[in-house]
TrEMBL record, chains A, B, C, D:
Enzyme class: oxidoreductase
Family named by the database record: Belongs to the HIBADH-related family. 3-hydroxyisobutyrate dehydrogenase subfamily.
Localization in the cell: Mitochondrion
Protein's recorded name: 3-hydroxyisobutyrate dehydrogenase
Main location: mitochondrion
Gene Ontology MF, one: NAD binding
Domain 3-hydroxyisobutyrate dehydrogenase-like NAD-binding: 186-312
Length: 316, 316, 316, 316
């Protein structure tokens, strides 16, 4: 039956994969995030076989010793562990189930780890499709930006069959400092989306509050200090304060350059909105946060760090 | 000139008041918060002279040794330091400037400390009115509820002339664990209002996020843990989580009894809204938070802790 | 080439279909709306061949002379014009592209009209799938409820190839009073979704405004009259006023029974939200309207008319 | 008793005033709106005695025959009917109750009509203060802009004692096409504020909807036509459409010049917010509309017509 076959396959794949753990690892999607992640796999001694739609993205990795192939199917043909890092749901669908997709040539027992941030419903579809081919799919989106990707300090939130978590962890710990098991397939995405929705709410809320306090005559550093010792405290007030001059080493001190772009936050809030709509969950502040980041994109803030909402609200 | 007279008065009052620091202290407003605060002054050895519109509120304090008089003017006639703790702006206006108000009989050089949570514009008006009578007015609203008032663990946010802060601190430390100087008159209120606005935003945001995550299949305790180690972290997620079963010792574990009532939060958000409107400051999330707490009051949640917004959004 | 073949097919189908216009018409989806729509086709002399997942829904139509078959494929096998009226996007996908779906047996040149209210992106997918089989797909969602469906007074908003509009109109005029051509496939849905989003905003806005005015001492009938002669005028204020006693013959006069259910409005606002998210369009009020109807569903208002938002906001 | 004295005074004032109806009328506040209103009184043969804080504002009226005096008290000293048209609540308080205010020299039985748009609570305070001096205060805010003021086509919404309405009407019909009695003092303001709140909601809603529809492929003129024949219809869609090219003779066709400024709408929404806060009325969309207009002011839209929210949301 299905359970037996799953356990058997799990046994096979686990033993197979763990016996030769430094065999090739596939990597698909060599963008701003994917490239440093793949490099960290190389650094840890894994032979990497990679592909990307932009050939130029592959060069740097090739020079570091990675093997470059034409398409995802070729990657899956040669590696029984594959990591994907792609911009959005349609890319993931294409890379897994398209004409040259992973599932066209995936080996039985392969472990497929998707670190893209996408709709958890799509993750579930991919898991079903992978299972039909005898492969295991896990979602493992990250928190932390390009810096954390380079230094191997990402946090991975992992959804999927629990008995495969150890196998995934082996690879993910090469690229991240924290690897958290969240539950069934899709819950990694859910955790990521939930965190970022609350982050956006906290950031806009902190920006409104700081702006109001300043207009009421409070010194911004003092206000931040008071909030941070009180019940208004949040990550955006105590770690990533959006008001220029309150903290050092954050984008607000650098004209909102670097950091996590407004457009990316708008994308994640779009995912939160979609999952909330699909599950009929009321998210009034999350929804308004989404709209505010959309308005910012419409007003020229796409490329600035998402803490620039302070500037957007303050006027100038 | 005015500066000289202010300094002279300041000199007089400081020396006069500090020389005999355990002279009578006036206390006006013996409600849920005021009564335990006044008791703490008594415990610290201050003779208290008090009044309240409800005679029955005075009894308990009288039995503990306080002197009870008829009205605020009588209090001010006998004590040169007066603390007020009242429900809202109109009460403060009445108690200070009404026919039997403090300012009718206030002594020159008196220190008047208002711990009510009110519109900072009213605090400024009271300060101007007090100054005309040669008295000093400071706003010193508190954070912390009835429990903190009883145990003397309140936080005071103090606005007013800086050279009087030490004198205020002497009394406030009898009633609170933290006494923070915020700046000119009204900035104590501003800090309080700002904190509570961000608190409300964080609480509703946390409730939406937890509700969404649960519907997406995440275990609530695990989700809280993930948020608290990530950028979604806030006081409402890590200290006062609104989801029953996630934490112990918070109102969500006790059917949202006790804590900080929805109606009180709605009141504070109304103050935040009013100050934002008057200063033309956009506060989109703060404004929506206000509306949500108003809707909750309209749907029967007035008396429940403000974390019951989780229940309101979740449906049942 | 494709254009030539399209024109040729169009020529064939038009002549073929119009020559024998009272040949069988297929109808799939015999719910609250679909059943009276199908009856109106029968009344106008069209032989109807129908199916529904619930056999009991078919009985009444069978007694009126309709032929009942097992599944959508059978309908398409016998009729070259098919109307579908289904609850949501997944149903439409199943009925068109599922194992027993229309496209399994559709005849070349058939005209497929979908009157469901769904995501316009799904309409476009169905149109592409239909075109591959040589058939023409049009979206034609309706406005007007069960009453309008029974009396043949629906409004159809039609999207699709313009040269097929006349053929669609022939059938739709049997079921509706207005048939409006909106543009390419999906624009019928777009028009429907846009209208309902603005409707929801107007209804909540009218409810807030009436509630505020009443609390400020205005007579509700007088306030409605003033709004309706001023720039606050909208359909919800002048045709469907949500305040009991202001108008006759509307759900507010009948404890919000009948009319357009809150749950259905929440569904349409979900579609609006999804299309807005997908097109990165900021819709702050539409988004908040969606959230308010979701909160109402969570608080027991699902089955009441959507004008009951007045009651929800007013408290009771 | 009070009722008798009120009736007696009413009798006196009515007979006194109506017997000599073309005696002097006072006018205070000669801004963009006040000047053309005062001119219309002159045109109808009323001697006008006027004042304004800006002497230059008085010149034009003086040349047309009005008598100019130094301050509101002088106006009230010479005229027993006075109209005021001022920017905001503090101005009204100053003009009525300040050191040179109307009430310093008002005659018993005088009729004081305030056409400013202010907080209805302030109107009530002014009415109480006027009554103490034996005078009658009515609030009569207007709808319609500078154009309507010039052509005498304003709508007046009047609150106050009903038996004085006829006397007020005599003057107001010289300046407006509609004079509507709304109820007790303050209800004129309430009606104005309610209308403008719903207007703002309708305008933003129409802008979001049109923007969404256009992105979904609908022609804007066609979409407007569909909305206007459906339940999405509102004044902003059918009379003042915010999308350039849809209608002629509206600000959207003229780069949002002229019309009703975003800053003025933000002010009126601030009043709506304040009255809603004070009466604990939830106004979620009204509140968000206020925030959106505040954000627009912060982003440089203050001087553009309020329909420019379409441009703000659309991006450019």
């Amino acid at each position: 039956n299905q359970l037996a076959s799953r356990k058997f396959r799990s046994f096979l794949s686990n033993s197979g994969r763990s016996m030769a753990s430094k065999t090739q690892v596939g990597f698909i999607g060599l963008g701003n995030m994917g490239k440093p992640m793949a490099k960290n796999l190389l650094k840890h001694g894994y032979p990497v076989i990679a592909t990307d739609v932009f050939p130029e993205s592959c060069k740097e990795l090739q020079e570091l010793g990675a093997q470059i192939v034409d398409n995802p199917a070729e990657v899956a043909d040669q590696a029984d562990r594959v990591v994907t890092m792609l911009p959005s749901s349609p890319n993931v669908i294409e890379v897994y189930t398209g004409p040259n997709g992973i599932l066209k040539k995936v080996k039985k027992g392969s472990l497929l780890i998707d670190s893209s941030t996408i709709d958890p419903a799509v993750s579930k579809e991919m898991a079903v499709a992978a299972e039909k081919m005898g492969a295991v799919f896990m979602d493992a989106p990250v928190s932390g930006g390009v810096g954390a990707a380079s230094s191997g300090k990402l946090t991975f939130m992992v959804g999927g069959v629990e008995e495969e978590f150890t196998a995934a962890q082996e690879l993910l710990t090469c690229m991240g400092a924290n690897v958290v098991y969240c539950g069934a397939v899709g819950t990694g995405q859910a955790a990521k989306i939930c965190n970022n929705m609350l982050l956006a709410i906290g950031m806009i809320g902190t920006s409104e509050t700081m702006n109001l306090g300043i207009r009421l005559g409070l010194d911004p550093k003092l206000l931040a200090k008071i909030l941070n010792m009180s019940s208004g405290r949040c990550w955006s007030s105590d770690t990533y304060n959006p008001v220029p001059g309150v903290m050092e080493g954050v984008p607000s001190g650098n004209n909102y350059q670097g950091g996590f772009g407004t457009q990316l936050m708008a994308k994640d809030l779009g995912l939160a909105q979609t999952t909330a709509t699909n599950t009929k969950t009321p998210v009034p502040l999350g929804s308004l946060a989404h709209q505010i980041y959309r308005m910012m994109c419409a007003r020229g803030y796409s490329g600035k760090d998402f803490s620039s909402v302070f500037q957007f609200l303050q006027g100038a």
